[in-house]
Specification:
12 helices; 24 strands; FAD/NAD(P)-binding domain; 3 domains; globular; Alpha-Beta Plaits; Glutaredoxin; 30% helix; alpha+beta
Length: 510
Protein backbone atom coordinates (compact mmCIF):
# COMPACT_ATOMS: atom_id res chain seq x y z
CA UNK A 1 0.00 0.00 0.00
CA UNK A 2 1.31 3.42 -0.96
CA UNK A 3 1.14 6.35 1.40
CA UNK A 4 -0.45 8.39 -1.39
CA UNK A 5 -1.71 7.90 -4.93
CA UNK A 6 -1.86 11.08 -6.98
CA UNK A 7 -3.89 11.25 -10.19
CA UNK A 8 -2.27 13.61 -12.67
CA UNK A 9 1.37 14.15 -13.65
CA UNK A 10 1.02 17.83 -14.49
CA UNK A 11 2.88 20.53 -12.53
CA UNK A 12 0.51 20.36 -9.54
CA UNK A 13 0.55 16.59 -9.19
CA UNK A 14 4.32 16.41 -9.66
CA UNK A 15 5.02 19.23 -7.21
CA UNK A 16 2.85 17.54 -4.59
CA UNK A 17 4.55 14.20 -5.27
CA UNK A 18 7.95 15.84 -4.73
CA UNK A 19 6.80 17.33 -1.42
CA UNK A 20 5.63 13.94 -0.19
CA UNK A 21 8.71 12.17 -1.53
CA UNK A 22 10.93 14.70 0.21
CA UNK A 23 9.29 13.69 3.51
CA UNK A 24 9.99 10.01 2.85
CA UNK A 25 6.45 9.03 1.85
CA UNK A 26 5.82 6.32 -0.74
CA UNK A 27 4.05 7.94 -3.69
CA UNK A 28 2.51 6.68 -6.92
CA UNK A 29 1.49 9.14 -9.65
CA UNK A 30 -1.01 7.97 -12.27
CA UNK A 31 -1.18 9.85 -15.56
CA UNK A 32 -3.72 9.41 -18.35
CA UNK A 33 -1.38 10.47 -21.19
CA UNK A 34 0.93 7.64 -22.32
CA UNK A 35 3.95 9.88 -22.96
CA UNK A 36 5.19 13.11 -21.37
CA UNK A 37 5.32 16.27 -23.41
CA UNK A 38 3.29 17.47 -26.37
CA UNK A 39 3.05 20.47 -28.67
CA UNK A 40 0.50 21.96 -26.28
CA UNK A 41 2.93 21.85 -23.37
CA UNK A 42 5.99 23.18 -25.18
CA UNK A 43 6.64 26.69 -26.43
CA UNK A 44 4.89 28.66 -27.74
CA UNK A 45 1.45 27.19 -26.96
CA UNK A 46 2.54 25.80 -23.60
CA UNK A 47 3.89 29.16 -22.44
CA UNK A 48 2.96 30.04 -18.87
CA UNK A 49 3.93 32.75 -16.42
CA UNK A 50 5.01 31.70 -12.94
CA UNK A 51 4.30 34.31 -10.26
CA UNK A 52 6.86 35.38 -7.69
CA UNK A 53 5.15 33.09 -5.14
CA UNK A 54 5.50 30.06 -7.42
CA UNK A 55 9.13 30.88 -8.23
CA UNK A 56 9.71 31.18 -4.49
CA UNK A 57 8.40 27.63 -4.03
CA UNK A 58 10.99 26.33 -6.51
CA UNK A 59 13.69 28.41 -4.77
CA UNK A 60 12.83 26.94 -1.37
CA UNK A 61 13.15 23.40 -2.71
CA UNK A 62 16.41 23.98 -4.55
CA UNK A 63 14.89 23.73 -8.04
CA UNK A 64 15.05 27.35 -9.16
CA UNK A 65 18.31 27.09 -11.10
CA UNK A 66 17.04 24.03 -12.95
CA UNK A 67 13.72 25.76 -13.67
CA UNK A 68 15.44 28.87 -15.02
CA UNK A 69 17.74 26.78 -17.21
CA UNK A 70 14.85 24.69 -18.57
CA UNK A 71 12.92 27.92 -19.25
CA UNK A 72 15.82 29.57 -21.09
CA UNK A 73 16.18 32.30 -18.45
CA UNK A 74 19.79 33.28 -17.83
CA UNK A 75 19.73 36.74 -16.24
CA UNK A 76 19.19 37.05 -12.49
CA UNK A 77 20.24 40.33 -10.88
CA UNK A 78 19.56 38.96 -7.39
CA UNK A 79 21.31 35.61 -7.72
CA UNK A 80 24.60 36.56 -6.09
CA UNK A 81 24.79 36.22 -2.30
CA UNK A 82 26.48 39.59 -1.95
CA UNK A 83 23.93 41.67 -3.86
CA UNK A 84 22.74 44.78 -2.03
CA UNK A 85 19.45 46.63 -2.56
CA UNK A 86 19.66 49.60 -4.92
CA UNK A 87 17.01 52.16 -4.00
CA UNK A 88 14.27 49.57 -4.22
CA UNK A 89 15.18 48.35 -7.72
CA UNK A 90 16.29 44.95 -6.45
CA UNK A 91 12.83 44.27 -5.04
CA UNK A 92 10.87 45.89 -7.86
CA UNK A 93 9.05 43.46 -10.20
CA UNK A 94 10.11 43.39 -13.83
CA UNK A 95 6.70 42.34 -15.15
CA UNK A 96 3.34 42.91 -13.50
CA UNK A 97 0.99 41.40 -16.07
CA UNK A 98 -2.42 42.65 -17.03
CA UNK A 99 -5.95 43.01 -15.76
CA UNK A 100 -8.72 42.52 -18.35
CA UNK A 101 -6.17 43.09 -21.11
CA UNK A 102 -4.88 46.34 -19.59
CA UNK A 103 -1.11 45.90 -19.28
CA UNK A 104 0.39 47.43 -16.15
CA UNK A 105 3.66 49.31 -15.76
CA UNK A 106 6.02 47.62 -13.27
CA UNK A 107 7.70 50.96 -12.62
CA UNK A 108 4.45 52.08 -10.99
CA UNK A 109 4.59 49.40 -8.28
CA UNK A 110 5.17 51.05 -4.91
CA UNK A 111 7.58 48.57 -3.32
CA UNK A 112 7.44 50.54 -0.08
CA UNK A 113 3.77 49.59 0.26
CA UNK A 114 4.68 45.87 0.16
CA UNK A 115 6.12 45.21 3.62
CA UNK A 116 8.74 42.65 4.58
CA UNK A 117 10.37 42.30 1.17
CA UNK A 118 14.07 41.61 0.78
CA UNK A 119 16.26 41.00 -2.29
CA UNK A 120 15.95 37.39 -3.39
CA UNK A 121 16.48 35.17 -6.44
CA UNK A 122 12.73 34.53 -6.29
CA UNK A 123 11.22 38.01 -6.25
CA UNK A 124 10.41 38.01 -9.94
CA UNK A 125 8.13 35.85 -12.04
CA UNK A 126 9.47 33.56 -14.76
CA UNK A 127 8.09 33.01 -18.25
CA UNK A 128 8.29 29.29 -18.86
CA UNK A 129 6.36 26.42 -20.40
CA UNK A 130 4.43 23.50 -18.99
CA UNK A 131 7.00 21.16 -20.55
CA UNK A 132 9.88 22.92 -18.79
CA UNK A 133 8.13 22.87 -15.40
CA UNK A 134 7.17 19.22 -15.76
CA UNK A 135 10.67 18.17 -16.84
CA UNK A 136 12.23 19.76 -13.75
CA UNK A 137 9.64 18.27 -11.41
CA UNK A 138 9.77 14.83 -13.06
CA UNK A 139 13.52 14.67 -12.61
CA UNK A 140 13.24 15.67 -8.96
CA UNK A 141 10.40 13.18 -8.38
CA UNK A 142 12.57 10.38 -9.77
CA UNK A 143 15.43 11.39 -7.44
CA UNK A 144 13.02 11.18 -4.50
CA UNK A 145 11.77 7.71 -5.40
CA UNK A 146 8.36 8.75 -6.68
CA UNK A 147 6.82 6.20 -9.04
CA UNK A 148 5.04 7.50 -12.15
CA UNK A 149 2.82 5.27 -14.29
CA UNK A 150 1.54 6.61 -17.60
CA UNK A 151 -1.31 5.54 -19.80
CA UNK A 152 -3.52 4.94 -16.74
CA UNK A 153 -7.18 6.02 -16.83
CA UNK A 154 -8.81 6.27 -13.41
CA UNK A 155 -12.14 4.45 -13.58
CA UNK A 156 -13.12 4.11 -9.90
CA UNK A 157 -12.24 5.55 -6.50
CA UNK A 158 -13.33 3.62 -3.40
CA UNK A 159 -12.46 4.45 0.18
CA UNK A 160 -13.01 3.30 3.73
CA UNK A 161 -11.61 4.37 7.09
CA UNK A 162 -8.31 2.61 6.41
CA UNK A 163 -7.46 3.68 2.90
CA UNK A 164 -8.38 4.27 -0.74
CA UNK A 165 -8.51 2.01 -3.79
CA UNK A 166 -7.95 3.72 -7.14
CA UNK A 167 -8.85 1.55 -10.14
CA UNK A 168 -7.84 1.49 -13.77
CA UNK A 169 -10.24 -1.12 -15.11
CA UNK A 170 -9.24 -4.31 -13.33
CA UNK A 171 -5.98 -2.88 -12.01
CA UNK A 172 -6.08 -1.71 -8.38
CA UNK A 173 -3.81 0.76 -6.61
CA UNK A 174 -4.13 0.86 -2.82
CA UNK A 175 -3.07 3.86 -0.74
CA UNK A 176 -3.69 5.50 2.59
CA UNK A 177 -4.63 8.72 0.80
CA UNK A 178 -5.56 9.75 -2.74
CA UNK A 179 -5.24 13.18 -4.31
CA UNK A 180 -6.89 14.32 -7.53
CA UNK A 181 -4.59 16.65 -9.48
CA UNK A 182 -6.06 15.50 -12.79
CA UNK A 183 -7.23 18.80 -14.21
CA UNK A 184 -10.46 20.58 -15.00
CA UNK A 185 -12.24 17.41 -16.12
CA UNK A 186 -11.03 15.49 -13.08
CA UNK A 187 -12.09 11.86 -12.91
CA UNK A 188 -11.22 11.72 -9.20
CA UNK A 189 -13.47 14.68 -8.46
CA UNK A 190 -16.45 13.05 -10.19
CA UNK A 191 -15.84 9.51 -8.93
CA UNK A 192 -15.34 10.62 -5.31
CA UNK A 193 -18.58 12.61 -5.35
CA UNK A 194 -17.36 16.19 -4.89
CA UNK A 195 -19.89 18.95 -5.54
CA UNK A 196 -18.68 21.32 -8.27
CA UNK A 197 -20.53 24.63 -8.44
CA UNK A 198 -20.10 28.02 -10.06
CA UNK A 199 -21.04 30.15 -13.07
CA UNK A 200 -21.47 29.49 -16.77
CA UNK A 201 -19.26 31.13 -19.42
CA UNK A 202 -19.65 34.43 -21.21
CA UNK A 203 -17.04 33.88 -23.91
CA UNK A 204 -15.24 31.29 -25.99
CA UNK A 205 -11.49 31.70 -26.07
CA UNK A 206 -9.15 30.42 -28.74
CA UNK A 207 -5.41 29.91 -28.72
CA UNK A 208 -3.90 28.98 -32.05
CA UNK A 209 -0.82 28.66 -34.19
CA UNK A 210 -1.84 29.77 -37.68
CA UNK A 211 -0.51 31.14 -40.92
CA UNK A 212 -1.39 34.81 -41.41
CA UNK A 213 -1.14 36.44 -44.82
CA UNK A 214 -1.11 39.97 -43.41
CA UNK A 215 -0.01 39.94 -39.74
CA UNK A 216 0.66 43.68 -39.85
CA UNK A 217 -3.11 44.20 -39.66
CA UNK A 218 -3.04 42.93 -36.06
CA UNK A 219 -1.53 45.00 -33.27
CA UNK A 220 1.16 43.29 -31.17
CA UNK A 221 0.43 42.27 -27.59
CA UNK A 222 -2.93 42.72 -25.84
CA UNK A 223 -5.63 44.57 -27.76
CA UNK A 224 -9.05 45.26 -26.28
CA UNK A 225 -11.73 45.98 -28.87
CA UNK A 226 -15.44 46.83 -28.75
CA UNK A 227 -16.17 43.16 -29.53
CA UNK A 228 -13.69 41.30 -27.35
CA UNK A 229 -9.91 40.93 -27.07
CA UNK A 230 -7.08 39.43 -29.08
CA UNK A 231 -3.42 38.89 -28.31
CA UNK A 232 -0.73 38.68 -30.98
CA UNK A 233 2.17 36.89 -29.33
CA UNK A 234 5.85 37.42 -30.24
CA UNK A 235 6.01 34.01 -31.93
CA UNK A 236 4.90 34.29 -35.55
CA UNK A 237 1.33 33.06 -36.03
CA UNK A 238 0.62 32.58 -32.30
CA UNK A 239 -2.68 34.33 -31.60
CA UNK A 240 -5.25 34.16 -28.81
CA UNK A 241 -8.70 35.72 -28.88
CA UNK A 242 -11.86 35.94 -26.79
CA UNK A 243 -15.28 36.03 -28.45
CA UNK A 244 -18.23 36.95 -26.22
CA UNK A 245 -20.63 34.35 -27.62
CA UNK A 246 -21.79 32.98 -24.26
CA UNK A 247 -19.34 30.08 -24.56
CA UNK A 248 -21.38 28.74 -27.46
CA UNK A 249 -18.61 27.07 -29.44
CA UNK A 250 -18.49 23.37 -28.67
CA UNK A 251 -14.95 22.42 -27.67
CA UNK A 252 -15.50 18.89 -28.99
CA UNK A 253 -15.37 20.37 -32.48
CA UNK A 254 -12.13 21.34 -34.17
CA UNK A 255 -12.56 24.93 -35.35
CA UNK A 256 -12.20 25.30 -39.10
CA UNK A 257 -9.98 27.88 -40.76
CA UNK A 258 -13.11 29.70 -41.94
CA UNK A 259 -14.55 29.82 -38.40
CA UNK A 260 -11.30 31.09 -36.89
CA UNK A 261 -10.90 33.76 -39.54
CA UNK A 262 -14.48 34.90 -39.06
CA UNK A 263 -14.06 35.20 -35.29
CA UNK A 264 -10.68 36.94 -35.55
CA UNK A 265 -12.05 39.45 -38.05
CA UNK A 266 -15.02 40.20 -35.83
CA UNK A 267 -12.98 40.54 -32.67
CA UNK A 268 -10.11 42.51 -34.23
CA UNK A 269 -12.24 44.70 -36.46
CA UNK A 270 -9.88 44.00 -39.40
CA UNK A 271 -10.05 41.98 -42.61
CA UNK A 272 -7.03 39.88 -41.64
CA UNK A 273 -6.62 36.66 -43.65
CA UNK A 274 -5.60 33.27 -42.26
CA UNK A 275 -3.91 30.86 -44.66
CA UNK A 276 -3.70 27.64 -42.64
CA UNK A 277 -4.17 26.22 -39.13
CA UNK A 278 -1.40 24.27 -37.41
CA UNK A 279 -2.80 23.92 -33.89
CA UNK A 280 -5.87 25.29 -32.16
CA UNK A 281 -7.61 24.84 -28.83
CA UNK A 282 -10.62 26.48 -27.22
CA UNK A 283 -11.48 27.45 -23.66
CA UNK A 284 -14.16 29.39 -21.81
CA UNK A 285 -14.50 31.49 -18.68
CA UNK A 286 -16.66 28.92 -16.90
CA UNK A 287 -15.80 29.38 -13.21
CA UNK A 288 -16.39 26.39 -10.93
CA UNK A 289 -15.09 25.24 -7.55
CA UNK A 290 -15.67 22.23 -5.35
CA UNK A 291 -17.47 23.02 -2.11
CA UNK A 292 -14.68 21.30 -0.18
CA UNK A 293 -11.19 20.05 -1.05
CA UNK A 294 -11.50 16.88 1.02
CA UNK A 295 -13.89 13.97 1.27
CA UNK A 296 -12.58 11.43 3.74
CA UNK A 297 -9.26 10.15 2.44
CA UNK A 298 -9.58 11.82 -0.96
CA UNK A 299 -8.30 15.35 -1.55
CA UNK A 300 -8.18 17.68 -4.56
CA UNK A 301 -5.69 20.29 -5.72
CA UNK A 302 -5.24 22.55 -8.73
CA UNK A 303 -7.73 22.54 -11.59
CA UNK A 304 -9.39 19.45 -10.16
CA UNK A 305 -10.63 21.71 -7.34
CA UNK A 306 -11.22 24.94 -9.27
CA UNK A 307 -11.50 26.00 -12.91
CA UNK A 308 -11.75 29.46 -14.42
CA UNK A 309 -10.61 31.44 -17.45
CA UNK A 310 -6.87 31.95 -17.95
CA UNK A 311 -7.25 35.74 -17.66
CA UNK A 312 -4.43 36.97 -15.45
CA UNK A 313 -2.58 33.63 -15.56
CA UNK A 314 -3.63 32.45 -12.09
CA UNK A 315 -4.43 28.79 -12.77
CA UNK A 316 -0.99 27.19 -12.63
CA UNK A 317 0.15 29.48 -9.82
CA UNK A 318 -2.90 28.71 -7.68
CA UNK A 319 -2.33 25.00 -8.21
CA UNK A 320 1.31 25.18 -7.14
CA UNK A 321 0.17 27.11 -4.06
CA UNK A 322 -2.29 24.29 -3.31
CA UNK A 323 0.45 21.67 -3.64
CA UNK A 324 2.91 23.59 -1.46
CA UNK A 325 0.27 24.03 1.26
CA UNK A 326 -1.03 20.47 1.16
CA UNK A 327 2.28 18.64 0.75
CA UNK A 328 3.85 19.13 4.17
CA UNK A 329 0.50 18.71 5.92
CA UNK A 330 -0.31 15.40 4.27
CA UNK A 331 3.24 14.22 4.90
CA UNK A 332 2.94 15.11 8.60
CA UNK A 333 -0.30 13.10 8.82
CA UNK A 334 1.20 10.12 6.99
CA UNK A 335 4.25 10.12 9.27
CA UNK A 336 2.12 10.32 12.40
CA UNK A 337 3.41 13.77 13.33
CA UNK A 338 -0.06 15.33 13.25
CA UNK A 339 -3.71 14.24 13.36
CA UNK A 340 -5.66 14.22 10.11
CA UNK A 341 -7.51 17.32 11.28
CA UNK A 342 -4.41 19.20 10.10
CA UNK A 343 -5.74 18.61 6.59
CA UNK A 344 -8.75 20.73 7.43
CA UNK A 345 -6.41 23.71 7.57
CA UNK A 346 -5.57 23.02 3.92
CA UNK A 347 -9.22 23.59 3.09
CA UNK A 348 -9.51 26.56 5.42
CA UNK A 349 -6.46 28.28 3.93
CA UNK A 350 -6.69 27.38 0.25
CA UNK A 351 -10.44 27.24 -0.50
CA UNK A 352 -10.81 31.03 -0.05
CA UNK A 353 -7.84 31.55 -2.38
CA UNK A 354 -9.55 29.46 -5.06
CA UNK A 355 -12.78 31.42 -4.58
CA UNK A 356 -10.88 34.69 -4.92
CA UNK A 357 -9.27 33.54 -8.19
CA UNK A 358 -12.69 32.71 -9.63
CA UNK A 359 -13.95 36.18 -8.73
CA UNK A 360 -10.75 37.79 -10.06
CA UNK A 361 -11.30 36.22 -13.48
CA UNK A 362 -15.04 36.96 -13.40
CA UNK A 363 -14.28 40.62 -12.76
CA UNK A 364 -11.96 40.73 -15.77
CA UNK A 365 -14.54 39.09 -18.01
CA UNK A 366 -17.16 41.58 -16.83
CA UNK A 367 -14.88 44.50 -17.66
CA UNK A 368 -14.24 43.10 -21.14
CA UNK A 369 -17.87 42.60 -22.12
CA UNK A 370 -18.60 44.22 -25.51
CA UNK A 371 -21.56 46.27 -24.33
CA UNK A 372 -22.13 49.69 -22.76
CA UNK A 373 -21.99 48.30 -19.22
CA UNK A 374 -18.70 46.48 -19.79
CA UNK A 375 -17.15 49.48 -21.54
CA UNK A 376 -18.13 51.73 -18.63
CA UNK A 377 -16.60 49.37 -16.08
CA UNK A 378 -13.45 49.07 -18.20
CA UNK A 379 -13.07 52.85 -18.32
CA UNK A 380 -13.21 53.12 -14.53
CA UNK A 381 -10.75 50.25 -14.05
CA UNK A 382 -8.35 51.69 -16.60
CA UNK A 383 -8.27 54.97 -14.66
CA UNK A 384 -7.62 53.11 -11.41
CA UNK A 385 -4.86 51.00 -12.94
CA UNK A 386 -3.07 54.08 -14.19
CA UNK A 387 -2.48 55.08 -10.58
CA UNK A 388 0.40 53.91 -8.40
CA UNK A 389 -1.97 52.52 -5.79
CA UNK A 390 -3.97 50.62 -8.39
CA UNK A 391 -0.91 49.02 -9.99
CA UNK A 392 0.50 48.09 -6.58
CA UNK A 393 -2.80 46.53 -5.53
CA UNK A 394 -2.95 44.32 -8.64
CA UNK A 395 0.70 43.31 -8.30
CA UNK A 396 0.23 42.40 -4.64
CA UNK A 397 -2.66 40.14 -5.59
CA UNK A 398 -1.25 38.36 -8.63
CA UNK A 399 2.30 37.95 -7.27
CA UNK A 400 1.19 36.53 -3.91
CA UNK A 401 2.89 39.40 -2.05
CA UNK A 402 -0.35 40.33 -0.29
CA UNK A 403 -1.38 36.74 0.55
CA UNK A 404 -1.92 36.22 4.28
CA UNK A 405 -3.44 33.28 6.12
CA UNK A 406 -5.22 33.97 9.40
CA UNK A 407 -2.97 32.17 11.88
CA UNK A 408 -3.58 34.41 14.85
CA UNK A 409 -0.71 36.18 16.60
CA UNK A 410 -0.08 39.87 16.95
CA UNK A 411 2.81 40.47 14.59
CA UNK A 412 1.71 41.54 11.08
CA UNK A 413 4.23 39.20 9.42
CA UNK A 414 2.48 36.12 10.84
CA UNK A 415 0.53 34.37 8.07
CA UNK A 416 2.60 36.01 5.31
CA UNK A 417 5.27 34.32 3.25
CA UNK A 418 8.65 34.81 4.90
CA UNK A 419 11.14 37.30 3.44
CA UNK A 420 14.27 35.61 2.10
CA UNK A 421 16.46 36.64 5.02
CA UNK A 422 20.17 36.51 4.25
CA UNK A 423 22.82 35.97 6.92
CA UNK A 424 26.16 37.70 6.80
CA UNK A 425 27.81 34.43 5.70
CA UNK A 426 25.65 34.51 2.55
CA UNK A 427 23.18 31.83 3.62
CA UNK A 428 19.59 32.50 2.59
CA UNK A 429 16.45 31.32 4.36
CA UNK A 430 15.28 29.68 1.13
CA UNK A 431 18.39 27.51 1.06
CA UNK A 432 17.67 26.28 4.59
CA UNK A 433 14.23 24.99 3.55
CA UNK A 434 15.32 22.52 0.89
CA UNK A 435 14.76 19.43 3.05
CA UNK A 436 11.09 20.31 3.62
CA UNK A 437 11.38 21.10 7.31
CA UNK A 438 10.26 24.26 9.02
CA UNK A 439 12.93 26.70 10.13
CA UNK A 440 13.57 28.56 13.36
CA UNK A 441 15.68 31.51 12.24
CA UNK A 442 17.31 33.12 15.29
CA UNK A 443 19.04 36.47 14.91
CA UNK A 444 19.47 36.91 18.68
CA UNK A 445 21.08 33.50 19.37
CA UNK A 446 18.81 33.14 22.40
CA UNK A 447 19.67 29.84 24.12
CA UNK A 448 16.02 29.32 25.10
CA UNK A 449 14.98 29.43 21.48
CA UNK A 450 17.60 26.84 20.59
CA UNK A 451 16.37 24.61 23.41
CA UNK A 452 12.79 24.92 22.20
CA UNK A 453 13.74 23.02 19.04
CA UNK A 454 15.16 20.06 21.01
CA UNK A 455 13.10 16.96 20.25
CA UNK A 456 11.54 18.58 17.20
CA UNK A 457 14.48 18.22 14.82
CA UNK A 458 12.40 16.06 12.47
CA UNK A 459 10.07 19.04 12.04
CA UNK A 460 12.27 22.07 12.62
CA UNK A 461 15.73 23.22 11.60
CA UNK A 462 17.43 25.71 13.94
CA UNK A 463 19.50 28.37 12.17
CA UNK A 464 21.26 31.16 14.05
CA UNK A 465 23.26 34.10 12.80
CA UNK A 466 23.36 37.80 12.12
CA UNK A 467 21.19 38.93 9.20
CA UNK A 468 22.17 41.58 6.69
CA UNK A 469 18.70 42.99 7.32
CA UNK A 470 16.60 41.45 10.10
CA UNK A 471 13.68 43.86 9.54
CA UNK A 472 13.73 44.64 13.26
CA UNK A 473 13.06 41.03 14.29
CA UNK A 474 14.87 38.87 16.83
CA UNK A 475 13.63 35.58 15.34
CA UNK A 476 11.04 34.03 13.05
CA UNK A 477 9.53 30.55 12.82
CA UNK A 478 8.65 29.47 9.28
CA UNK A 479 6.44 26.55 8.22
CA UNK A 480 7.72 24.14 5.53
CA UNK A 481 5.69 26.05 2.93
CA UNK A 482 7.42 29.31 3.83
CA UNK A 483 4.61 30.87 5.88
CA UNK A 484 5.60 32.68 9.09
CA UNK A 485 3.87 31.26 12.18
CA UNK A 486 5.78 33.19 14.85
CA UNK A 487 7.82 36.39 14.86
CA UNK A 488 9.62 37.95 17.82
CA UNK A 489 10.57 41.58 18.28
CA UNK A 490 11.20 41.43 22.00
CA UNK A 491 12.57 39.00 24.56
CA UNK A 492 11.74 35.38 23.76
CA UNK A 493 8.22 34.41 24.86
CA UNK A 494 8.15 30.65 25.30
CA UNK A 495 4.39 30.44 25.74
CA UNK A 496 3.51 32.13 22.46
CA UNK A 497 6.20 30.11 20.68
CA UNK A 498 4.83 26.81 22.01
CA UNK A 499 1.28 27.77 21.11
CA UNK A 500 2.33 28.70 17.56
CA UNK A 501 4.12 25.39 16.97
CA UNK A 502 1.22 23.37 18.42
CA UNK A 503 -1.32 25.17 16.28
CA UNK A 504 0.95 24.68 13.31
CA UNK A 505 0.67 20.90 13.65
CA UNK A 506 -2.87 20.75 14.92
CA UNK A 507 -1.98 19.17 18.25
CA UNK A 508 -3.16 21.96 20.55
CA UNK A 509 -6.17 21.61 22.80
CA UNK A 510 -7.42 24.87 21.27
Amino acid sequence: MYDAVIAGAGPVGLFLACELGLAGCSVLVLEREPEPGSQWRSMPLGMRGLSAASVEAFHRRGMLSALRAASGVHDDPNEGPDEEPDEGDSVRPRFVGHFAGIVLDPAEVDVGALPYRLPSPALHGVMTSLAAVESVLSERAAELGVEIRRGVTVSAVEQDEDGVIVRDGEQEYAARWAVGCDGGRSAVRALAGFDFVGTEPQFTGYTMLVGIADPEKLSPGFTLTPTGMYIQMPTEGHVAMMDFDGGAFDRTQRPSLEHLQSVLRRVSGTDVTLTDVHLVSTFTDRAMQTTTYRRGRVLLAGDAAHIHSPLGGQGLNTGIGDAMNLGWKLAAVVRGQAPDTLLDTYIRERHPIGAWVLDWTRAQAAAMRPDKHGQAVQSVIRDLLETRDGTTYVYGKVSGASLRYDLGGEHPLIGHTAPDFQLTDGTRLGEEMRDGRGVVLDFSTDQRLRESVTGRENRLRYVAGVAKDDLGLDAVVVRPDGIVVWAGEREFDGKTFERAVKLWYGDSES
